[in-house]
Amino acid sequence: MPTLSQQTIRNETVFTGPGLHSGVETKLRLLPGEPDSGIHFVRTDIGPEARIPLTLETLRRHPRRTSFGIGDIEVHTCEHLLSVLHVLGIENGIIEIDGPEVPGLDGSSLQFLEAIGETGIEKQGSRGRSLAIANAVSAEDDMASVVALPGDDLRVTYTLQYPGDPGFNQTVDFKITEELYAKEIAPARTFVLEREVKELKAQGLGKGATEENTVIVTDSGEALGGRFIDEPARHKVLDLLGDLYVLRCSIQGHIIAHRSGHGLNAQLASKIAEAHVRAMELEDILVKSPRGLEIRDIHKLLPHRYPFLLVDRVLEVEDGVRAVGLKNVTFNEEFFQGHFPGQPVMPGVLQLEALAQLSGVLLLRGSADASRLAYILGMDDVKFRKTVIPGDQLILEAELKRLRERSAQVQVRATVDGKPVTEATIRFMLVDAQ
């Protein structure tokens, strides 16, 4: 799966057939792409300018399929082809199509896989894109969930069951390789519940569905004419791999899904991207900035000590301007014993205290007399936006707004996973230490 270099298809490959939902006959040409160019859809029935890059920004939310679009121009049901591109590590290519929907073929990804295999893959020299899941990322709604966990390779565990139908319960668990995908996943066709057929037809969907390309699951949970006894769950893995390729990189981690569909898969992809960007930004601070402070340095500036020192590390401090620190919120914090038993929540006032301590580092490090103390005079515009619980990592930010001989004003913010949890403006009085 992971490739050392970027790859594209060696030569043009053509597919024709009706779309599964629209029933519209289309011709799709998969063409080689330049290094670092990415994947692009081109609606040739509209014109060469009707070009849609494969990105999170162009992802469209439509029921029962994965679509991409810009303005009024869209391409639908892309997940089966993208699933193959994901597993083969094809990062660059042009997908020309003369209609609104990718050909459904036999309802699986097998024909895409076989045709691309016959055409061949070209290595392009430039380093391939990869993403390792560093921390748990999840998405959920009332009936479904999907989580990405750290792992040594790409593994997918999928459970498919329906409420009110305890007899229908399928779980599959795969370590994804090209060989396994070709044998165990690619042949799995799309499916529909027998009781949903009329409703889908009423919505204008499934116009290209046939007994050959769509498995019907009866009310008793039987997959009619299935290639595998658990073909629906396997197809869900196929879809998931396609949906995640909106990230256009090989993924290293363990994906665990329960009834997730295209919408929830898209949410997970977006959250993985956000977490990866934050991790890269934090790594950039930790690795490249020589201006951070370890706990011993913090002790030299602040009088606070355990258990009331609430800044574990200062990642960056720019004297007289700003500081960035972190506080790891762990289960053994003493305040969790009483706040609250069985439902631990970090008190908001302690979040403010952590921000005030980081502000003290900022003020005293840039002061001509670092032996002074910073006392809180008051706080303005305090906002608590989200609870902080054990396992969270508080990223603390302090920006100096005003500094005088005996007073200062600092704007502070704390975030968890990039989302603000606490904000305030803190006023300080600077006094000489006794």
Low-confidence stretches: 281-290
Q: Which range best describes the helical content: under 10%, 10-25%, 25-40%, 40-55%, 55-70% or over 70%?
A: 10-25%
Biggest pleated-sheet summary: 6 strands, mixed
Derived from helix and strand composition plus strand pairing, the structural class reads: alpha+beta
Counting DSSP E segments of at least 2 residues, the number of strands comes to 25
Query: What count of helical segments does DSSP give?
Result: 8
Roughly what fraction of the amino acids lie in strands? 35-45%
- Provide the domain count: 2
Question: What is the CATH topology of the largest domain?
Answer: lpxc deacetylase, domain 1
Name given to the CATH homologous superfamily of the largest domain: lpxc deacetylase, domain 2
**Second rung of CATH, namely the architecture of the largest domain:** 2-Layer Sandwich
Based on CA inertia axes, which overall geometry fits? elongated
CATH class category name of the largest domain: Alpha Beta
- What Rg do the Cα atoms give? 27 Å
Integer average pLDDT: 89
Gap between N and C termini: 64 Å
Keywords:
434 residues, alpha+beta, lpxc deacetylase, domain 1, Thiol Ester Dehydrase, Chain A, 2 domains, six-stranded mixed beta sheet, six-stranded antiparallel beta sheet, 25 strands, 37% strand
